[in-house]
TrEMBL record, chain A:
Transmembrane segments: none annotated. Residues 10-22 have a biased composition (Low complexity). Pfam families: DUF742. Residues 1-34 are annotated as: Disordered. InterPro entries: DUF742. This is DUF742 domain-containing protein. Signal peptide: none annotated.
């Protein structure tokens, strides 16, 4: 009995293997925050990934916060990924990104960008992940 | 959801909270057909109870808005299970299990952007379900390993035969696993990490 067969594909021409998501350079210690440019019409979303970590700047939501914003702020007193916020709030990812964009604009939360895979992945990062998995 | 009683929205348990030192996260995606064990794998290695994030997509939401408002507009809810592993006090790893079926591929843009790599989970009873998934990863240049989830009643093929059937290059690791077991799922992730590491050493992203 032989299994069914498939044919290998190659990266699409002209499409970069990795979209140009500028990553923080390793060793640049400094400020881990990405600079968000939030402009344009209402509903515009900041560049937020499923694993961007969100942290409230203050444990107490301001009185001006909407109920949704207040709920989100209370959840991220400690860093929490956008995916987790979406899960706990039972809101779709896209809705949560809009809420976070508003809160970033109001400077009520901080966003910590994920480390993205680059053309040449950082070996020390991969080694750190391997080390962490070995502990499981 | 009614947010007016938002004091009561359950968040992470105290022991599941990330330390304030957590600076950044990385992600790995587990793809495969329906019922192949993605959710089981996420659950067996995650340090938190797996969570689900949803996205509602309409035709308009995927860039076709000419039927906006018409009765034929359809909405699809796509759910993804995910788990989390704390790597260090600064670094967190997230694992996403996502359906491999064609109608969900539009979700992949955001998901694979920046992912370290992927695990393609296959079931030898329905090997062909994973063909297109692998092709999509190859087109996007996302490095992946293949993990064969050993179901008791599934046909057993030598891995070399599977490699040929899946048209995998010699470089791409293929391993057998039992995703119900934490150690086995962790070994699959380790195989992916070692593969990524070797790619980093050779400077290629084949």
């Amino acid at each position: 009995m032989t299994p069914p067969r498939r044919q290998r594909r190659t990266p699409a021409q002209g499409t970069p293997a990795q979209p140009a998501a500028p990553a923080r350079k390793e060793g640049e210690g400094g400020n881990p925050e990405r600079l968000y440019v939030v402009a344009g019409p209402d509903g515009e979303r900041a560049d937020i990934d499923l694993v961007t970590l969100i942290v409230a700047r203050s444990p107490d939501p301001p009185p001006s916060a909407t109920p949704e914003q207040a709920a989100l702020l209370r959840l991220c007193v400690a860093p929490l990924s956008v995916a987790e916020l979406s899960a706990y709030l039972s809101l779709p990812f896209s809705v949560v990104t809009v809420l976070i964009t508003e809160l970033l604009t109001a400077e009520l939360v901080q966003a910590r960008s994920p480390i993205v895979r680059k053309a040449l992945p950082d070996r020390s990062l991969l080694e750190a992940v391997m080390h962490g998995l070995q502990r499981l | 959801m009614d947010f007016n009683g938002s004091d009561t929205i359950p968040g992470p348990r105290a022991e599941d909270q990330l330390p304030h030192t957590a600076q950044s996260a990385v992600k790995i995606v587990i793809v495969g057909g329906f019922g192949v064990g993605k959710t089981t794998m996420v659950g067996s290695v995650s340090e938190i109870k797996p969570l689900t994030t949803e996205e509602t997509m309409t035709q308009a939401g995927i860039g076709v808005d000419d039927n906006y408002g018409s009765a034929s507009k359809t909405a699809t809810t796509v759910a993804m299970d995910f788990g989390r592993i704390r790597i260090t006090d600064e670094l967190v790893l997230y694992l996403f299990g996502t359906p491999g079926q064609e109608r969900f591929w539009f979700l992949w843009n955001g998901l694979f952007e920046g992912a370290l790599g992927a695990v393609v989970l296959v079931d030898t009873r329905r090997l062909e379900v994973s063909f297109d998934v692998m092709g999509r990863l190859e087109e996007r240049g996302v490095p992946f390993v293949v993990a064969v989830n050993s179901f008791p009643d599934a046909p057993r093929y030598p891995l070399a035969d599977l490699r040929t059937a899946l048209d995998l290059s010699e470089m791409v690791p293929i391993v057998e696993c039992d995703v119900r077991r934490r150690a086995s799922s962790r070994d699959v992730l380790m195989t992916l990490m070692r593969f990524l590491h070797s790619l980093a050493m050779t400077g290629s992203l084949a």
